Amino acid sequence: EKGEFRHFMLKEIYEQPRVMQAVLEGRIASGHLLEQAFGAAAGAVFDQVKQVQIVACGTSFHAGMVAKYWIEEWVGIPCMVEVASEFRYRPVVLPRDTLLLTLSQSGETADTLAALRAVQDRVLATLAICNVPGSSLVRESDLSLMTNAGPEIGVASTKAFTSQLVALMLTTIALGRRHGLSGERETELVAALEQLPGLLQQLLALDGPIEEMSAHFAEKHHALFLGRNVLYPVAMEGALKLKEISYIHAEAYPAGELKHGPLALVDKEMPVIAVAPRNGMLDKLKANLQEVRARGGELFVFAGCDQSIQAQEGVHVIHLPALPAVLDPIAFTLPLQLLSYHVAVLKGTDVDQPRNLAKSVTVE
Ligand code: F6R
Question: Catalytic positions (predicted)?
Fold first, then answer.
């Protein structure tokens, strides 16, 4: 039931504060992760893991890419990420003490299942992060963590993605405990996670300004998304959302790659959307943005509240509310979801059932 909402996608975007509560429920308490959430056998597995291989498709793959940054930074063990349709068809090299982590909203994606089946006998253990209890992926994996996002009807994934990110942060904490992650840092991360429901509620207040911004895209045929570090996969996910539901050709690049090719495409017909990092990379991003401006490109910047990026001729800025840096990938996702939604509504596409796409890709 869509209730007051015009589309399931919008309803599901607006459900995210509640979904954040659902994915955290019973998984954290008194500033700590409750590791039992992964099942009784999980502790022994986590003790032995020396590297993580993530496999997924589409939006779930983008969640996996975010997790790579987290795992290598906070756990300090190698983490590889690959799309399932490639992984399953090549002779992959996997050390025995690998944790194979699959991500899937449906738990029925053919390529992801095939990737699991192809290597499950060669790894230490398999963990599925999934939204559908009892799905094939969950049944066939050693361990599982449900994202508890509730049924997702819109073909374009929204709440499933943000809940996967939370589940991945919980997984990172579980692994980090065995390695470099201090108890203090864990408490800090958990405290940040506890802010998520309220934070996403605040982010929804950006809906109006984002709807206004969307008018700039309705007549465009292309768009470029830029991000750095953990916001690079967020830019990829933003580009995927826009192309899926508005049929505008969109690509994402790590901001530093701009001058290595895509800058050649930039002119006034190519809007550039940047998700601005808050670390020392901001100055570099600003330099990229100037290059875009110099070529007449219109810029749309999503920035942290403390960032000194001012709106000016051809530069539109939306500031996010104050939030812990660790939540950036989750927080910056929501405004990008709203942007693609409003552009699609302006274009009059079938938002919940984009052409040529199926919600669950159970065949190759
Ligand atoms: C994008 C989208 C798809 C899915 C992909 C994997 O909005 O929905 O890219 O993310 O088909 O599906 P799951 O997560 O069910 O394995």
Answer: 359 (for fru-6p isomerization activity)
- Residue 112 CB less than 6 A away from ligand 1: yes
Could you tell me if 333 and 162 are in contact, meaning their C-beta atoms sit under 8 angstroms apart? yes
CA of 224 to the centre of ligand 1 (A): 21
Query: Is the ipTM reported for this complex over the cut 0.90?
Result: yes
244 pocket-lining for ligand 1 (C-beta < 6 Å): yes
Distance CA 122, CA 127 (A): 14
User: What tens digit of pLDDT does each residue of 51-74 get?
Assistant: 999 999 999 999 999 999 999 999
The CA distance from 193 to 200, in Å, is 11
Cβ(106) to ligand 1 under 6 A? yes
User: Whose C-alpha lies nearest to ligand 1, atom 3?
Assistant: 58
* Coil/strand/helix, residue 211: helix
Check if the beta carbon of residue 251 is closer than 8 Å to that of residue 242: no
Query: Does the annotation count 359 as an active-site position?
Result: yes
Out of 361, 362, 364, give the residue to mutate to test ligand 1, the one with the largest number of ligand atoms within 8 Å of its CB. Answer: 361
Residue 279 pLDDT class (50, 70, 90 cuts):
low
Question: From the CA of 158, how far away is ligand 1's center (Å)?
Answer: 10
Amino acid (1-letter code) at residue 296: G
Dump pLDDT digits (tens) for 104-128.
Answer: 999 999 999 999 999 999 999 999 9
Q: Sign of dihedral through CA atoms 83, 89, 90, 93?
A: positive
Report the amino acid identity of residue 137.
L
pLDDT digits (tens, 9 = 90+) for 151-204: 999 889 999 999 999 999 999 999 999 998 999 999 999 999 999 999 999 999
Could you tell me if 137 and 128 are in contact, meaning their C-beta atoms sit under 8 angstroms apart? yes
